[in-house]
Write a structure and sequence with these properties.
By secondary structure, this protein is mainly α. Helices cover 58% and strands 8% of the residues. The protein has ten helices and four strands. The strands form two sheets. It has a two-stranded antiparallel sheet with strand order 1-4. Strands 2-3 form a two-stranded antiparallel sheet. A hairpin with a 5-residue loop joins strand 2 and strand 3. The longest helix is centred in the middle third of the chain and has 25 residues.
């Protein structure tokens, strides 16, 4: 999967992206992203737009139901946030709304703690959130490499239900949209100083 990602990376990004992948995505380095840093939460593990169902109630309220809990795990709260942002947005959307998404997530996280009469300034102060986010940002590139091929796959190239895992993960034919979205993430990460 990493080789597929490197192959579609823009020439101007390829050397920098390749070095980053080789350095950061060894098994021992990847495992750290799935462990709590300062706070342990139960994370969905596959939180993306197509795992949400929406319906409008008669009073106009939008109801959202989360689906697919097979990847649920104890980890840090940033994992689901980055997974959702990388899988659910493109470069243009992130340029316009990334900071709003981060702030909204943290504010709602704090509101959830307050509903349980817990003090977010004690449990997960914003400084800890910001530090965890910075430490977890490389995870977004892992998501782009591993998940975007499936999120962006053309229908005719999608894996068939019941196919073996090796075929499912290694045999996916990536789309032009994958290249576009991956290069958008790489561009963002260059601007953020991560690459």
């Amino acid at each position: 999967m990493a080789q597929n990602a490197i192959a579609v990376a823009k020439e101007e990004y390829r050397d920098r992206f390749t070095a980053f992948v080789e350095q950061n995505f060894k098994t021992e380095n990847v495992e750290k992203f799935f462990k709590p840093i300062r706070l342990a939460v139960i994370a969905h593990g596959d939180f993306r737009p197509d795992n949400l169902m929406h319906r409008r109630l008669e009073d106009g309220t939008l109801e959202v139901a989360v689906l697919d809990f097979q990847m649920i795990q104890v980890c840090n709260p940033i994992m689901d946030l980055l997974y959702y942002i990388i899988n659910g947005t493109d470069e243009k959307f992130r340029q316009e709304h990334y900071q709003q998404l981060i702030e909204h997530y943290y504010n709602e996280f704090c509101n959830s703690l307050r509903r349980f009469r817990l003090d977010p300034d004690i449990i997960y102060p914003d400084k800890n959130f910001e530090n965890d986010l910075k430490e977890m940002l490389p995870f977004g590139l892992l998501v782009a490499i591993v998940s975007l091929p499936f999120v962006t796959v053309d229908v005719q190239n999608a894996s068939k239900i019941g196919s073996d895992l090796e075929t499912h993960f290694l045999g996916v034919k990536t789309s032009d949209l994958f290249a576009e979205r991956l290069n958008g993430v790489i561009s963002d990460y260059i601007k953020m100083g991560i690459l």
